[in-house]
Design goal:
Length: 59
């Protein structure tokens, strides 16, 4: 059951690298207005998870 729930949530997500090379995990619905991944705004970044805070800078 937990695996199914996690899988459903995972399918709703995208991984976006901004123009500075930082990577974010975002829900598609939160960033569906972006045209190019590099155009992620500060407002959209705030809705995402900065992966360097999860994985660390040296990942």
């Amino acid at each position: 059951m937990k695996g199914e729930t996690i899988s459903k949530e995972f399918q709703k997500m995208i991984w976006v690298q901004d123009k500075n090379g930082k990577e974010y995990a975002c829900y598609i619905d939160d960033v569906k207005s972006i045209k190019k991944k590099e155009d992620l705004t500060e407002e959209e970044k705030a809705k995402c998870t900065d992966l360097s805070t999860v994985l660390g800078d040296s990942w």
